[in-house]
Amino acid sequence: MRWGELTGLARANTHLGDGLIQVHPEVGALHEVQGHLYLGPPKTANSVRDIHLPPFLTALLREVLDSHDHDIVFCGARGAFLRRSSMSRRVWGPVVNGNARAHTGPVIEGMHLHDLRHTHKTWLIEDGIPEVAQAKRLGHRLPGVRGIYSHVTPAMRQRITEALQDRWLSTQPAPAAPVRHLHAA
Fold first, then answer.
1. CA–CA dist 133, 138 (Å, integer)
2. Spans of the chain, pLDDT less than 70
3. Checking DSSP bridges between strand 14-15 and strand 36-40, what pairing results, if any?
């Protein structure tokens, strides 16, 4: 999701039982104009979409929703909208660039939040996801005949969520082997 889509995501547009979230056509993105924050339409008409989630992401999103009762999913402590500048300065920057006070090194120095969209697109390509499904997931439009005659199928959506779940599982530590105790006979 784009920054505005993520920070404008309303609880009402999360359907975790179905494993999806929706970018709403009228209030699906947070906008900041001259210091004022408001919900409005996303970037383009193609940005309005359902985004199917792998199980691990559904579980993580449920944790976020269970942690508060505000209408906006990703919000400040009292339900306020998140500002890009303060989020970048207070959270994103220290995580990716390292934090001397917390004694943490950089993850990927200089990385921007939008770079995650590029990474996601690259993973979709690596996983052999058809171009039409990549475009739909990212809220893009395929030009010309490819955009007119190509459609996303349930099987394509399932391939995306399975590939993302597999990537997640491959990063998780292996479960510890059970400890066997030898008893004297």
1. 9
2. 181-185
3. unpaired
